[in-house]
Amino acid sequence: MEFRAFLKNTYLFGHLQDNELEELEQNSTEVFFARGETIYKQDSFATHALYLLKGHASVYTEIQNYQRIIKIIKPGWFIGLMSVFSMEKHLFSARAVENCVVRMIDKTTLSSLLSRNSEFSLKFIKELSLLGSSLIYYLALQNTKNVRGRIGEILLHLSENIFKSPTFPLMFTRKELGAIANTSTETAIRIINDFKREKLIEIENNVITILNIELLRKAVILG
Length: 223
Hints:
The chain is of the alpha+beta class. It has helices at about 5-10, 20-25, 80-85, 105-115, 120-145, 145-160, 175-180, 185-195, 215-220, and strands at about 30-35, 40, 50-55, 55-65, 65-75, 80, 95, 100-105, 165-170, 200-205, 205-210. The longest helix is centred in the middle third of the chain and has 27 residues, at about 120-145.
């Protein structure tokens, strides 16, 4: 899909005039990232606003040699937006969970458009607020639930917020799922197997189906 046509169908960019959309298109570049490829590294310079057009990406923090995934980005959202205007370098790293198409938008062009269009600025602030809230929620999840509750919450999040379907591709390895839930690979595998045995989920050909969403929610609450 043409970049301008894609933006026209989004909440954030949908009301912009054709000349404004053309300005964004002319001052941006489309880049393909293969599954597993690094989109940007923690502490690298944040020179562009990165807008995800296709695929899913994970944002993660790197402490020494340990990686912890903190957010999943779906098409129609920015990657690493909090670093673009607040500081020169990225706070986190990002990786393509599957093949991704990213539009790299010149941040000076984006900043100029924000200063000229108040409605766009308000929507942009809302986008940043949602991003900040999701990071706070993630931290709360890590501190208030046990591992079973955290993994259940991740599956619900993927189903309800990312794919909007009870059936969706399990795009993470067990190791990555453990990293999101802040637990070991072995523990993540054990809990997934527990969910399967309890008939809460099924997995076939790397596709997961939530069989009983209410019982899974209950497992999350009890966690």
